[in-house]
Amino acid sequence: MSAEYATFGLAPAMRAGGVLANGDYQVHRDFVDFIVEGRPLLFQLSDLDAVSPLASDVPPAIFTAQVRGLLLEADPPLPDGRYVIYGCPECESLGCGAVTAAIDRAGDDFVWRDFAWQTDERADLERNGYHGIGPFRFRGAEYRTALASLLEAAPGGSRRRVLLIGARVAVLAKLAAALRTIGIGADITRDADGVPADELRGYGAVAFGRAVTEQERAAVRRVFDRAGVEVAYVHGLAPIVPLLVAQIEHALDRSPVQQRRLTRLVAVDGEAGVEVTSPCRVRLTAYRLDRLYRTHAHEVFDGVLEAGRHRIPLDAKAVKGEAYVVARSSGSVLVQAMAR
């Protein structure tokens, strides 16, 4: 094992939820990711849809136990001194597969080694090991300080509630139901007057319908400003529930921009421009409204893109008239109106 040190840090991350074009739902998860040598470790493990065990929605006692385990203050949950580094975002079953690693002490340092994809009680390093990943040796003080900071802050601190404001109650009700299904709380109101400051602090975003006037939007902003609450404001592009969910998912993303995989989306002249920072699966979905305001959804691309910028042609029928494009990776979502 190399004696060289790797830097260790933590950063907020998100597994993007959403309503997919085929009608399926994908659960939203906020978690803390491991930053190794300045990059999310998850990005080094191919295109993996997974979350760390440091998720905001786990009970505080379990969250604390996970941190204590990574600090080697508790017994490993798996044989051979192995710990779950990333697991299934939909459930806790090892049967779905998990990235595990052995964690050791080397003097005052901590070493993560023998990364593997594990689906049962013991890892098969020969067959399922990540042979190009690690081992990583972390300085003890840096490692302990980063993880101990999680115990000082209340887990689950991310605000996963959205305030929906608009005139079309039927659309808002469908949107609220979709958000709740993927794990995001949602409340509907016509304005925010009279809402106590403590309640306002529970919201991470405010979504406005297209019928809400600029004066009404400004009044809502003043209410949040007076309460000292900073939220993301979403201006709904169209009364299309999956599209609005994608806009809200993007607004709730608190991960550092420089540590996101999907960083750019433009949609113009019949093609989409996409930029990714590391190889990952990207799905592009086009939504459009016809003359009768009926919604049409088309999956226009689904494939793995290498790091860099890409130009992807779009089916002319899919983006005819008033149309929008949603780009989705496992960790983030971007939305753009189709420019002409």
Describe the 3D structure.
The protein is an alpha+beta fold and 340 residues long. Helices cover 21% and strands 35% of the residues. The chain is built from seven helices and 20 strands. The protein has helices at 60-70, 125-128, 140-152, 169-181, 197-200, 214-226, 241-252; strands spanning 8-15, 18-19, 25-26, 29-36, 39-40, 82-86, 98-106, 109-118, 136-138, 161-165, 185-189, 205-208, 232-235, 262-268, 271-276, 280-289, 295-305, 308-313, 322-328, 333-337. Strand 14 and strand 15 (271-276) form a beta hairpin. The radius of gyration is 22 Å and the shape is globular. The mean pLDDT is 91.
Q: Number of helical segments?
A: 7
**Class from helix and strand fractions:** alpha+beta
Strand order of the largest sheet: 6-7-8-9
Portion in strands: 35-45%
Q: Which word captures the global form? A: globular
The rounded distance between the terminal residues' Cα atoms is 56 Å
Fraction of helical residues: 10-25%
**Succession of helices and strands:** EEEEEHEEEHEHEHEHEHEHEEEEEEE
- How confident overall, as mean pLDDT? 91
Low-confidence stretches: none
Largest sheet: 4 strands, antiparallel
Gyration radius, to the nearest Å?
22 Å
For the secondary structure, the number of strands is: 20
